[in-house]
Specification:
The chain is α+β, with helices and mostly antiparallel strands. It has 16 helices and 25 strands. The protein folds into 3 domains: about 190 residues, Aldehyde oxidase/xanthine dehydrogenase, a/b hammerhead (Aldehyde Oxidoreductase, domain 3), CATH 3.90.1170; about 325 residues, Aldehyde Oxidoreductase, domain 4 (2-Layer Sandwich); about 100 residues, Aldehyde oxidase/xanthine dehydrogenase, molybdopterin binding domain (Aldehyde Oxidoreductase, domain 4), CATH 3.30.365.10.
Length: about 725
């Protein structure tokens, strides 16, 4: 039995983080650096009629004020280059950037920013995604001629026949909201010109080499003239996939040839980066009396905000999972992502799957109730199994463990929660209920997006193997990836963990492993490290050299783009499967919902580090609880009303369940290192639906709008008493 793989080893960065030795980007600021202050638009949609920087430049201590005229290539974006670094003519949301003031001190930079004069002519704004596609709607990007960012059709089987065969049909409408990433460390960083004349940016992000690519293009430089280095990263959750302060730092250092620092406040971070997509889903499901689901039809609308970010990919994922983790013969889904003048939306843990599952899992439960079938039994009769055909027309990748995960969750719920038995209620106004939901989420890039991870392993020793150096450009955003990668290398090479050196935070020193996103780094980065280590070991045994090296690029089975008319494709090469049972307590007087216990079951393929897997489950459930019940990120007419933590309520320890029961299954994935597959997003996927189902079990009302605040619970209870639809809040 391995002493490395599966062991609950402490994280390699734990001691430095708890003692304060670890340096986060804001800790890198040094005396003598220029301080940068961004001038935000604070306008929802407007034309810049005057931009006067003279007073700001004249203020003592101000060194420069950079504007759009200073940007060589003033457009960027992870997929679509539709966002200006500094706006020259039009601002499209309140977080657009108009100027960057550089000064000798923070105070001088802030005062200089206040002295930048910007005059605007307000333009008509579109902040309602429902209206964004109206013929007379104001256009966010007039050159496109439409506010439609992407339409995703998925067509499987014959939808009319599917509903004709159904004995029961149910309909539903669901709304999810924005969510703020709220990562612990606000955006910050430094930049300078090194001794080789390269622009060096030290910051936090999720993909070294993609940051480098975009910044090099903005500056008009070869990529090798830009170096990205990551300090300790205080969380990301998808929020650092898009650029924020990095290109501003690079531009300032390149133009002024001086070291520069930018440290954003919480409010600046909140308005300056993207959010989770608000999504509206209207759907109809049909099933036969025997419990077989025959048809799913869904219309999904996602608010992409002012810039594309990753909206195109998120709406593809949401459309793919509109039918949950169930094999349905007839599917008709239309997914739409639209531009508005709201804050941009993009990657966030779950990437469209939590929104889709909120609707799908409630609909499965509603179908079961309409048919008079136990909701668990209905899931059993329809859940994905090996060889099931996806909505896009191809068999699922091997390793389908959805039935195993469901059955384990049911067994645990019966033993630990008395699932299926009569429940006792603590008081007349406190009602307890239990809800179960299943989930599926792709691991890795989808729909033909290029996928790879590259690692280099160097071995050293005289006679016996003494140590190894692993080079891989993999960001650790708090998920423990660096520990996992060292464990995989140590196991493959037969070395103690302390003899594995990891170089991973410098784009000039470590090869591209792709992003720390889509729960992909353990599988993709880990497989690259495993294969490179194995190849290096082969070379070591075939030579007498004291130093050998091997570089391996791992590519998984291919995926393919969606057919623009039918959606047919091979969407993913790997999935994670989960099932959760949630016990809640509903206060019928206040409307408050308390999550009492959670059983969260996951197939992780192989737990490389069991402690880290359990930690991911617990941490993700905290974020899921916020998404479901607390985090009411409010935007009114394009203006963010909750820019700080006094107005945007995050879960605290007092909001967490009394008990979280993580259950880890290990059915090895054929592509993963030692069978491992990713799982960091999975606990968020079915959680909101499980809570809604538990609320219904407790008090008999459906809450179909997130977050499920006390006001919305009371509205639903009141409407049920008067037999009317609850008011929307």
């Amino acid at each position: 039995m391995s002493e490395v793989i599966g062991a609950a080893l402490p994280r390699v960065d734990a001691l430095d983080k708890v003692t304060g030795k670890a340096c986060y980007p804001a800790d890198l600021v040094r005396p003598g650096m220029l301080y940068g202050k961004v001038v935000f638009a604070h306008r929802v949609h407007a034309r810049i009629t005057r931009l006067d920087t003279q007073a700001a430049r004249a203020y003592p201590g101000v060194v420069a004020v950079l504007t759009a005229a200073d940007v060589p290539y003033n457009a960027y974006g992870l997929i679509t280059e539709d966002q200006p670094l500094l706006c020259s003519d039009v601002v499209r949301y309140e977080g657009d950037k108009v100027a960057l003031v550089l000064a000798e001190s923070k105070d001088a930079a802030e005062e200089g920013a206040r002295r930048v004069i910007v005059e605007y002519e307000d333009l008509p704004a579109i902040t309602d995604p429902e209206r964004a596609l109206d013929p007379d709607a104001p256009l966010v990007h007039p050159a496109r001629g439409t506010n439609l960012l992407l339409h995703v059709p998925i067509r499987k089987g014959d939808i009319a026949r599917g509903f004709a065969e159904a004995d029961v049909t149910v309909e539903g409408e669901f709304q999810t909201s924005w969510q703020e990433h709220a990562y612990l460390q606000p955006d910050a960083g430094i930049a300078y010109i090194d001794e080789h004349g390269r622009v060096v940016v030290e910051t936090a992000g999720q993909w070294l080499h993609e940051d480098r690519r975009q910044i090099a293009k903005i500056l008009g430089l070869p990529e090798e003239q830009v170096v990205i280095r990551y300090a300790a990263i205080g969380g990301a959750f998808g929020g650092r996939e898009d650029l924020n302060v990095q290109p501003l730092l690079a531009l300032a250092a390149w133009k002024l040839r001086r070291p520069v620092a930018i440290v954003w406040s919480r409010e600046e971070t909140t308005i300056g980066h993207h959010k989770r997509h608000p999504v509206r889903i209207r759907c109809r499901w049909g099933a036969r009396r025997d419990g077989r689901i025959t048809a799913v039809q869904a219309d999904i609308l996602a608010d992409g905000g002012a810039y594309a970010s990753t909206s195109a990919e998120v709406i593809k994922v949401a459309a793919l999972f509109a039918s949950g983790c169930y094999e349905v013969p007839n599917i008709w889904v239309d997914g739409y992502a639209v531009y508005t003048n709201n804050p941009p939306t993009g990657a966030f843990r779950g990437f469209g799957a939590p929104q889709a599952h909120f609707a799908a899992e409630i609909m499965v439960t509603k179908l079961a109730h309409a048919l008079g079938i136990d909701p668990i039994e209905l899931r059993r009769r329809n859940i994905y199994h090996e060889g099931s055909i996806e909505p896009t027309g191809h068999p699922l990748p091997p390793g389908v463990s959805a039935p195993l995960v469901l059955e384990r969750c049911v067994d645990e719920a019966r033993v630990r929660l008395g699932y299926g038995q009569p429940r006792e209620h603590p008081a007349p106004h406190l009602r307890r209920g239990v809800g179960l939901a299943c989930g599926i989420k792709n691991l890795g890039y989808s729909f033909g997006y290029p996928e790879q991870a590259t690692a280099t392993v160097e071995l050293f020793g005289r006679g016996d193997l003494e140590r190894a150096c692993v080079r891989i450009g993999a960001a650790d955003v708090g998920q423990g990836a660096h520990t996992i990668l060292r464990q995989i290398a140590a196991e493959t090479l037969g070395l103690p963990l302390e003899r594995i050196e990891l170089i991973c935070a410098d784009s000039a020193e470590a090869p591209n492993a792709g992003s720390a996103s889509a729960s992909r780094m353990t599988l993709m980065g880990g497989r690259a490290v495993h294969d490179a280590a194995r190849e290096a070991l082969r070379k070591w045994h075939e030579t007498d050299a004291e130093h050998v090296s091997a570089t391996v690029q791992f590519r998984p089975p291919r995926t393919t783009p969606l057919d623009p008319e039918t959606g047919e494709c091979i969407p993913n090469y790997c999935y994670g499967y989960t099932a959760q049972t949630v016990e809640v307590e509903v206060n019928t007087i206040t409307g408050q919902v308390r999550v009492v216990r959670v059983i969260s079951v996951h197939d992780v393929g192989r737990a490389i580090n069991r402690q880290q897997v359990e930690g991911q489950i617990e941490g993700c459930l905290a974020q899921a609880l916020g998404f479901a019940l607390l985090e009411h990120f409010q935007v009114h007419d394009g203006k963010i009303l909750t820019p700080n933590f006094s107005t945007y309520l995050l879960p605290t320890v007092l909001d967490m369940p009394e008990e979280i029961i993580p259950v880890i299954l290990e059915h090895g994935d054929p592509n993963g290192p030692y069978g491992a597959r990713g799982m960091a997003e999975m606990p968020l996927v079915p959680f909101a639906a499980a809570v809604a189902i538990a609320i219904h079990d407790a008090v008999g009302v459906w809450i179909t709008r997130l977050p499920m605040t006390p006001e919305r619970v009371l509205d639903a209870l009141g409407a049920a008493q008067h037999h009317q639809a609850p008011a929307l809040r």
